[in-house]
Amino acid sequence: MSRQEKSRWEILQQEQRLIEEKNKRKKALLAKAIAERSKRTQAETVKLKRIQKELQALDDMVSADIGILRNRIDQASLDYSYARKRYDKAESEYVAAKLDLQHKTEIKEHLTEHLCTIIQQNELRKARKLEELMQQLEVEADEENLELEIEVERMLQQQEAEAGRQASQSHNRAGTAKENSAPTVTTKESEHANHAVASPALSEQLVLSENSGTKSLSNVDNQTQAVNVTPGDSPACSDT
């Protein structure tokens, strides 16, 4: 074999060995990559399984919560239906009661007005009858004295009520403060004292009015039997 052919053969061998070495290294790298990929795949598989397990646990927990909430919602729906029925019934009863109250109030006001009208008409009939009677008996009524008597009587009633209230208060204070040794005034004495102090002029006017009224009434009583009143003129109802 010539030197030239030998050199070429050696070059080919060197190239072959270089290619083989490269292939060997590539195979090693590929095997390493496959091994790493397989290891990573296993780790990912384990991780994926763990994630799936956690998701399943979350689903189970949510399912339990959803079941509890659904039961509560069903119970709340029943309670709402019952409360709604009660509300509708109460509302209808309230409306009916309000209308009934309004109707009864109108009836009461109408009857009260009718009663006041009857009493007023009765008093007017009595006043006319008394006026006719006094004209027949030739008795003159002093309107000013009558009004004065009524006013004096009303004021005396107010003073008596005020004196009674003050006497009651003083009696209560005397009961709670027993150490006070001053003699207490009785209710009647305080009333007479209040009357004497508060209205001496009114008392004099009352005496004068009573005297004049007594004279007029005595004249009426002496002559009443001479007058006949027809049954048809009696009042429809009497006031209490």
What characteristic shape results from the CA principal axes?
rod-shaped
Total helix count? 4
User: Which bin fits the share of residues in helices?
Assistant: over 70%
Determine the mean pLDDT.
75
How can the largest sheet be summarized?
none
Residue runs with pLDDT of under 50 for 5 or more positions? 182-240
Tally of DSSP β-strands:
0
Q: Radius of gyration, Cα only, in angstroms?
A: 60 Å
Give the H and E element order: HHHH
Strand content: under 5%
Walk me through the structure:
By secondary structure, this protein is mainly alpha-helical. The protein has a domain at 143-174 and 185-222. The chain contains 4 helices and no strands. The chain has helices spanning 3-136, 143-176, 187-198, 200-223. Residues 182-240 have low confidence and may be disordered.
List the keywords.
rod-shaped; 85% helix
What's the topology here?
Elements: H1 3-136, H2 143-176, H3 187-198, H4 200-223
Biased composition (Polar residues): 157-187, 206-228
Organism: Bambusicola thoracicus
Protein name: RAB6-interacting golgin
Short overview:
Helix content is 85%, strand content 0%.
